[in-house]
């Protein structure tokens, strides 16, 4: 499961609707498409329990089944989790039996020390030496019940994760080693082991607050994976998978099919091409896409590469066989396929539902207070998905962004903060829209769930132009994407995205209340702590001087609605697109390059649900060999080898490695590695980035 983002409660609206069937005409994207209501942690648990039960009924074992994550399990979360520092989500994931996860970029939203605080499963390993309820955190006093360490549904204090977070490419600058374990080794039965290496997108420093990650460095994902593959092989481990919080998108004709993969594009394509052929599968995330791919590794052999969408709407069932002789995954002759499975709401797990109910009740008192009203929906910038449905985008100016910027500016209007005159708001900090009608504290918290403070700094007019230029970094900039900032009332500018990076905003059009901004003059500017620290590659903010820290961001929104209700959506017209006759002189100090970036990798692929043969790969073994040393259908000997049911087609000596039969996999009677399922696995040893101990 990837990109869960604390969706412990049932998702609502479009987040709860998943296209699951093309309907009678057999074509996705037409009027008879079938959608299903999905999501919610209690339903995730049930979906996985059903999968595991089917696997066990076929002769599988608990130890050969894993529940794994690919990052962003927490943060950017709804109110019922975020208000308690995502400790509710961690309690839920612990209760569901999560075995391991890679870190995601959002695991760094509150900084490395907070990540160390919650990652109790790795205490005293690598740089993780922070307790779940410390006396101090990052050199500041830590107040239990305020800063974290809230009583859980059993009445006990928060104890952190029961599962390890992996971070092979996040290097602690003091030691030169990963800040958290790079891999986890599992005994999967029959003397066989499997290792999972965890990495996160190397772009993390451009999308989290730099102030929180000053003690670590993010290196190339494939480079980090390849560093640890021979270390694992030296331990005799050949079955190796990767959990990576980076992804891509299926742009092929079957892109609406959650199990489709006609044409995969994006960063994950190049990463797959660079990752050692010894890696047997790649479970990805970050791009919030559903795809199920069989791609070629650098040696031309098949390799599964999957992603299960976002918010717990899907889980990926991945089935594979570990050869009893070699200890490696049999990718050519054994069962080797995957299915993305919808998380339906047929029978939510009552134990998980009870935990969720506890946190919903705990958050209700503060969250249900009405702070004001909205005359109409106040939205983020809007685009459309493949079905024509509206979706939030970040490359357009928005009413919500401008409203938040104005609220933050008004909150700091005093000599204490230097009487600021302009405010900016980053689009990634806006996590949901404000609906018309009564607006509660929970509604406002959901918009800005990160707990950033609102700060003031002094910038020159040239710095302000630099900030505006850094919105438009695609192509040519270090971020390679366009992010339109929200701005306060009275601020305006014109831009031409056809110009080179750094020359896309005309400085003569940058005005405040109709007066052109003077490049050499100074202005008092407001932004949240994420932007002030240069987050999202808005590095021009770091030129600021005389910083003053203000209130938490949600409190400024509360004050604005209390003072100004009913609130109408402001216009989203502060930035005006234009066509310049000549490009303005380049802005100074932006970094990056004005050259065109290299094209994003794209590869033709096949659905992983079709298996190896369906993807066009051929087993080199003689018919009947099965890739092992026996004959398909030969029963396993009880107590000597953990195979599935007799007659299942797995050769003697092969290990059935985990999970549940679903969809096309139901009749196969073999194991699976469950990515996004739930396991309550006990009694096996783990090795976290070191030789097992």
What is the structure about, briefly put?
With 693 residues, the chain is an alpha+beta fold.
What would the keywords be for this entry?
693 residues; alpha+beta; 7-stranded mixed beta sheet; 37 strands
Write a structural description.
With 693 residues, the chain is α+β, with helices and mostly antiparallel strands. 18% of the residues lie in helices and 23% in strands. The protein has 13 helices and 37 strands. It has an eight-stranded mixed beta sheet with strand order 34-16-17-15-12-10-9-37. Strands 3, 4, 7, 18, 19, 35 and 36 form a seven-stranded mixed beta sheet that branches. α3 runs antiparallel to α7. The radius of gyration is 26 Å and the shape is globular. The two termini are 28 Å apart.
Outline the secondary-structure elements.
Layout: E1 17-21, E2 34-37, H1 41-57, E3 67-69, H2 79-82, H3 87-96, E4 100-102, H4 112-118, E5 136-137, E6 140-141, E7 165-166, E8 170-172, E9 183-189, E10 192-200, E11 216-218, H5 221-234, E12 239-245, E13 249-250, E14 263-265, H6 267-274, E15 281-283, E16 290-296, E17 302-308, E18 314-322, E19 337-342, H7 350-367, E20 370-374, E21 382-384, E22 390-392, H8 399-411, E23 422-425, E24 437-440, H9 441-447, E25 453-460, H10 461-469, E26 486-487, E27 491-495, E28 511-512, E29 515-516, E30 522-528, H11 529-532, E31 545-552, H12 553-564, E32 575-577, E33 602-604, E34 606-607, H13 611-614, E35 655-657, E36 673-675, E37 686-688
Parallel strand pairs: 3-4, 3-36, 4-7, 10-12, 12-15, 15-17, 23-30, 27-32
Antiparallel strand pairs: 1-2, 5-6, 8-11, 9-10, 9-37, 13-14, 14-33, 16-17, 16-34, 18-19, 18-35, 18-36, 20-24, 21-22, 23-26, 25-30, 25-31, 27-28, 28-29
Helix pairs in contact: 3-7, 7-9, 8-12
